[in-house]
Write a structure and sequence with these properties.
- The structure holds two protein chains of two kinds.
- Chain A is mainly alpha-helical.
- Chain A has one domain.
- Chain A is built from three helices and two strands.
- Chain A has a two-stranded antiparallel sheet with strand order 1-2.
- The longest helix of chain A is centred in the last third of the chain and has 24 residues.
- By secondary structure, chain B is mostly helical.
- Chain B folds into five domains: about 425 residues, Sodium/glucose cotransporter (Up-down Bundle); about 120 residues, no CATH class; about 80 residues, no CATH class; about 80 residues; about 150 residues, Heat Shock Protein 90 (2-Layer Sandwich), CATH 3.30.565.10.
- Chain B contains 34 helices and seven strands.
- Chain B has a five-stranded mixed β-sheet. A two-stranded antiparallel ribbon of chain B has the order 1-3.
- The longest helix of chain B has about 80 residues.
- Chain B is elongated, with a radius of gyration of 54 Å.
- The chains are: A mainly alpha, B mainly alpha.
- Chains A and B meet through helix 1, strand 2 and helix 3 of A and helix 4, helix 10, helix 11 and helix 13 of B.
Chain lengths: ~60, ~950
């Protein structure tokens, strides 16, 4: 049960982190021209953060089970 | 070559498969072996969120604003992290209260208010109709485009509208409506769950995802050489560069954030999301897996949006082909027949999934929260007397579905051409976001009231309609365009897209700001200032504390009804067989053999209300039962009970306070007792040290004189005799002192022996005088006796009284004047006591010392020069003896005027009250 409580808190932290990474001002750091591995920086940033968030969600949810 | 017939055939085949899946799902559910009871199916069915807006519209929006399509999916991803906190609580509340729609949820939370349920339904219906129109537009457009295959040509725009019978959208609407009827309203279920439908929706989610991925892979890896190649070529074109960053035409950070916020609310409060994630949820543990699987789905379906957009823009150039259709037209342009057909089916699934779930959810709301409450209250219909209403319920729902599809079609005809897919959808998102304050407030804030929710929802809805809905009418020509550009009646401050002069925001952010401001403001403000009704309060507790309160209905049913009446009532809505079955199960759980033996108690009524709530909604269920159950008015006690739920904590802390007060009192008592004990202990110590000190004085002189005698054997005989005499006297004093200490100890401990008898005080005084005659002679004092002839007897101990008299007389002899000593003893008869005075003419006692002389070992006078004359115990002992017989002993004196010691002894402990009266009457009558 304590596990569950910690899990819930981790998820809330993840929510806050995601909100920060997807908004101004952090977002503006990557709002520029140029490419990363041929992919525009802004796209790479958004999809990269998105994938990373999902990966951490998988870890948080499945590690508690 | 794709013919219309092939397309239609494929479409029907696909719908057939869907129906088969649904049928199989329902069969398995009836057999108790659910196929949807896995978290994966749950997460997939949640992907009903991705509609044709996602399937076709994302690319369209990306073509206009680059990453501007993304917030709609980032919001739900973020909200997924909060699913465990928020969604699980919604599920728990809904399961505990048999809630079957958002309208039901809000109505039940705020005191089962039918008015509130109706309002929510109206908002949901008006808000969602554009969204349904969007699906019709997408499907019919894609069909029309597909018919031109292999030519890529847009449907004619801005020309005279098609005749009604030539309009594909109408047939799409009818087809989808019919399909939904078959799916959603085949039978009436108390829980309003549709397992078969969920299975079909999960399957559709897979189809649309695979279709989109197929196009994406084809474009990225077949037409181009991977992402890098595609983006490199796209960036070479000057007019595409602006799509790579935020700002300018792609919207600013503010609208970006407001879209994320908006979509976060939508994933919870869209009626179809509520239906799938809450109502159709089998096990709340499934939420866990959905936390990551659902965002992963959204991620997957979005990964190829930008490549397809750029490929489309590069291939077609801008303007010739509507970007909303790139997903379909790109494969068409490259003559990929199979892929084109698959994409069309994918788009069809996206649209049908949304339409099916949305209309089922809305039809439940319309039936339970809008139509039934009205019908049930409409006495002329006498509905509550009809035997079986389940058929009526189904008809209402079917009618609602058809009505919704038709309204969607009408909106499409009127406004569909004016907007891109995404813009239409966002209008709906903003509408359902209005539920957020009442829903979230209801889940986490006990103070939220019915009046507050009504005010908030009305205000939010009004602002939404004014800033989003009416402008959309104006743009499509239903209202004059001046309404937008100059404001109504040319009042610039009321311009719907720049309300109160607020400019610089996009339409959606602008509408969200004003509607949320008024919605939250009215909800919180009115809640804080309005009184909460008892029922409202009880429901608030059930909702907010759902994880703490053991699941039980609110304790508000006080009615009694016969079991038969209740069963029949439920049977009217669920069908008699289902009702019998449900009540039999209930009886079995209560350990009763048959339904007839059930006790017609409040519990049973609760159960019935529960069952009915599933079929016709919480507020209608209440109305129905109230008609059958003779509800007793709430007694004061019960009202207090309900209040108790909230004030239990207060009561508990009050009890604690009471306890701690008692404890404090006990502590104070103990402390007092302890202080008294310490005092007594100190007094004992004092007493012992005083006694030993007093004993040492005579002992020291005895020892000193004995040593002198011992060391000087040749002392003169006269001197020796003198010394021996001193030793004898001091020994006597010592003996006396020890006797008196023992005596006092006995008196104080209550162990002294008393021989009480009626005695003549006069005789005692005379005896004492004669005993002390030698002493008096030695002191040379003259004694005057003043005794009456005869005195009444007093109850006392002769020896003890003698002791008192001897003590007083010897004191008087000791302290009276040396030359002309005079001692007077007087005995007086008072009305109820005898009084003895022993007076001397000695130096007297200072008034300050009057009480001191009655303390142990205290002697007044010059202790430095004069040798102590007594033991210091005589007066304390005498006072104790007198007090023992109920009298008092005191002294009256002053320096230089002698001292008079007096004491009284009561005549009778219990004086015979009537005796004197009798005497007087006898005295009066005898002469």
């Amino acid at each position: 049960m304590t596990n569950r409580a910690v899990q819930a808190q981790r998820l809330v932290a993840l929510f806050v982190l995601g909100w920060l990474l997807f908004s101004f001002p952090l977002l503006s750091l990557f709002n520029s021209g140029g490419t990363v591995f041929g992919i525009p920086v802004l796209y790479a940033w958004l999809f990269g953060v998105w994938a990373a968030l999902i990966a951490v969600m998988v870890f948080v949810v499945e590690s508690a089970n | 070559m794709l013919l219309g017939g092939v397309i239609l055939l494929t479409s029907f085949a696909y719908l057939g498969i869907l129906f088969a899946i649904a049928y199989y799902g329902d069969k398995r559910a009836d057999a108790g072996r659910s196929i949807i009871a896995t978290p994966t199916i749950y997460a997939l069915s949640m992907a009903v969120y991705a509609t044709s807006w996602t399937f076709y519209g994302s690319v369209g929006r990306a073509a206009a604003s680059g990453v501007g399509f993304l917030p709609i999916y980032l919001g739900p991803t973020l909200m997924a992290a909060l699913f465990w906190l928020v969604l699980r609580k919604m599920i728990r509340i809904s399961k505990a209260n048999r809630i079957t729609s958002i309208a039901d949820f809000i109505a039940a939370r705020y005191g089962k208010s039918a008015l509130l349920g109706g309002l929510v339904t109206v908002i949901a219906v008006i808000g969602i109709i554009p969204y349904i129109a969007l699906q019709l537009k997408a499907v019919s457009n894609s069909f029309v485009i597909l018919l031109q295959y292999p030519t890529v040509a847009m449907p004619p725009k801005g020309e005279a509208p098609l005749g009604l019978l030539d309009d594909t959208a109408l047939y799409v609407a009818l087809l989808l409506g019919a399909f939904t009827l078959l799916f959603g309203t085949r039978h009436l279920d108390a829980t309003e769950r549709h397992e078969g439908m969920v299975a079909a929706i999960a399957f559709e989610s897979l189809v649309k995802l695979l279709a989109f991925l197929a196009v994406g892979v084809f474009v990225t890896f077949h037409l181009y050489d991977g992402f890098g190649d595609l983006f490199a070529k796209a960036m070479a074109l000057p007019h595409l560069e602006r799509l790579l960053t935020l700002g300018g035409p792609t919207g600013n950070y503010g609208s970006w954030a407001s879209l994320i916020f908006l979509s976060m609310l939508s994933i919870l409060f869209l009626p179809r999301q509520f239906q799938i994630s809450v109502v159709e949820n089998v096990n709340e543990q499934h939420v866990l897996k959905a936390i990551w699987l659902f965002p992963l789905y959204l991620f997957a379906i979005n990964i190829f949006v930008l490549p397809i957009t750029f490929a489309g823009l590069m291939h077609f150039g801008s303007g010739r082909v509507d970007a909303d259709t790139f997903v379909l037209t790109l494969p068409m342009a490259f003559q990929q027949e199979g892929l084109v057909l698959f994409v069309f089916i994918g788009g069809l699934s996206a649209a049908t999934g949304m339409v099916i779930v949305e209309t089922i959810a809305l039809s439940t709301m319309i039936c339970n929260d809008l139509v039934m409450p009205v019908l049930l209250r409409w006495r002329a219909l006498a509905l509550s007397t009809r035997a079986d209403l389940s058929g009526l319920l189904l008809s209402i729902r079917r009618g609602a579905i058809v009505l919704l599809m038709m309204l969607g079609y009408v909106y499409y005809r009127a406004a569909g051409e004016a907007y891109a897919l995404v813009s239409i959808g966002l209008v709906s998102f903003a509408a359902v976001a209005q539920f957020a304050p009442a829903m979230l407030g209801g889940m986490y804030w006990k103070q939220g009231t019915r009046a507050g929710a009504l005010a908030g929802l009305s205000a939010g809805f009004a602002l939404w309609a004014y800033t989003l809905l009416l402008p959309s009418f104006a743009k499509s020509g239903w209202l004059p365009i001046s309404f937008i550009e100059q404001g109504p009646l040319d009042i610039a401050l009321l311009k719907p897209l720049a309300l109160f002069g607020l400019a610089g925001l996009d339409d959606i952010s602008h509408a969200m700001f004003w509607s949320m401001l008024f919605n939250v403001g009215a909800y919180v403000g009115v809640s804080l200032f309005a009184r909460q009704s008892i029922r409202d309060h009880a429901q608030a507790l059930l909702f907010v504390d759902v994880f703490k309160v053991a699941t039980r209905g609110s304790s508000l049913w006080r009615g009694r009804a016969s079991v038969e009446e209740v069963v029949t009532l439920v049977g009217r809505f669920l069908g008699p067989a289902r009702a019998e079955e449900a009540f039999a199960g209930y009886a079995a759980r209560r350990g009763v053999k048959s339904v007839q033996e059930l006790e017609p108690q409040a519990d049973l009524v609760h159960f019935a209300e529960h069952l009915l709530a599933g079929a016709i909604g919480a507020s209608s269920a209440r109305v129905m039962l109230a008609s059958a159950v003779k509800e007793e008015p709430l007694s004061m006690d019960e009202v207090l009970d309900i209040l108790d739920e909230a004030s239990q904590v207060i009561a508990y802390s009050r009890q604690l306070e009471q306890k701690s007060r008692e404890l404090e009192a006990a502590t104070a008592g103990l402390r007092a007792a302890n202080e008294r004990l310490t005092e007594l202990d100190r007094m004992k110590d004092d007493f012992i040290s005083t006694v030993t000190h007093e004993l040492r004085t005579p002992l020291t002189s005895i020892r000193a004189f004995s040593e002198i005698l011992h060391d000087n054997p040749d002392m003169q005989p006269a001197k020796r005799d003198e010394f021996v005499l001193i030793i004898v006297k001091e020994s006597e004093r010592l003996t006396r002192m020890i006797n008196q200490v023992l005596d006092l100890a006995k008196l104080e401990s209550g162990n002294a022996e008393w021989h009480s008898a009626e005695l003549d005080l006069k005789a005692v005084i005379e005896d004492a005088v004669s005993t002390t005659s030698q002493l008096l002679r030695d002191s040379g004092a003259t004694l005057t006796l003043d005794l009456p002839g005869a005195v009444p007897p007093v109850p006392a101990d002769r020896d003890r009284l003698m002791q008192v008299m001897l003590n007083l007389i010897s004191n008087a002899a000791k302290f009276c004047d040396r030359q002309a000593g005079r001692i007077g003893i007087a005995l007086r008869v008072l009305p109820d006591a005898l009084r003895v005075d022993v007076a001397d003419n000695g130096i007297g006692i200072h008034p300050d010392d009057h009480e001191i002389i009655f303390e142990k070992f205290r002697q007044v006078g010059d202790t430095l020069t004069g040798k102590p004359q007594g033991t210091g115990l005589g007066l304390p002992i005498s006072r104790r003896i007198v007090q023992h017989f109920g009298g008092t002993l005191w002294v009256d004196s002053g320096l230089g005027r002698g001292a008079t010691f007096s004491f009284t002894l009561p005549l009778q402990r219990t004086p015979p009250a009537p005796a004197p009266a009798q005497d007087t009457t006898e005295a009066a009558s005898s002469p």
